[in-house]
Specification:
With 186 residues, the chain is an alpha+beta fold. Helix content is 32%, strand content 19%. Helix 1 (34-45) crosses helix 2 (51-64) and helix 3 packs across helix 4 (151-158). The longest helix has 21 residues, at 112-132.
Length: 186
């Protein structure tokens, strides 16, 4: 996408006989029309899509989610101009090369005690719901082979290495659950 708004221009002849292009109208914002987007989609991806389908399936939903801007075209009032929302490019990851989630609060680090507590609460709540609905069954935790295991065994077997999915924020951690800032430097 150009850094300049779309323009409506005309070529005119000067008194000297030279041709000159003048701007008649210019969009107020930098962006593309659905016709331009459909043409570029065909050019780049070799996918033919009509402008109505492009608007209904992609542009309107993206605009409703706040990912792209949609403003009325100054040049053609029957068309809209679409552009990315400046703040919409975000990531839940701090580093593009590291797809682990950052844990800010050291008390929430998924240590064995935190996981046992959370899984225990879930199982207790499900057991209570069963009793309230007169369903007399006990909820069980099963491993991949269908064998009943305890919450502690589940965590030891499948969730014992949270560093695969999580990383700590670069602050001093004083909790018993995690390393100090000295350990993070290693």
């Amino acid at each position: 996408m150009d850094d300049e708004p779309n323009k409506l221009t005309r070529e005119v002849l000067e008194q000297t006989g030279d041709k000159k292009e003048i701007t008649i109208m210019q969009e107020s914002e930098v962006g593309l029309t659905s016709k331009q987007l459909a043409a570029k989609t065909h050019e780049v991806m070799n996918i033919s899509i009509n402008t109505r389908k492009l608007r209904e399936q992609y542009l309107y939903p993206l605009s409703n989610m706040g990912i792209i801007n949609m403003i009325k075209s100054t040049i053609n009032r029957n068309e809209n101009i679409y552009s990315p929302v400046e703040d919409s490019v975000f990531s839940i990851f701090d580093d593009d090369k590291d797809s682990r989630l950052t844990i800010v609060d050291s008390d929430l680090w998924p240590s064995k005690s935190v996981l046992e507590k959370e899984y225990g609460i879930i199982i207790e709540q499900e057991d209570k719901r069963g009793l309230e609905n007169c369903i007399f069954q006990r909820y069980k935790v099963l491993d991949i082979d269908g064998i009943e295991i305890s919450v502690s065994e589940l965590i030891d077997k499948y969730l014992s290495n949270p560093e695969i999915c999580f990383k700590r924020q670069n602050t001093i951690i004083t909790s018993d659950n995690g390393p100090t800032s000295e350990d993070q430097k290693k």
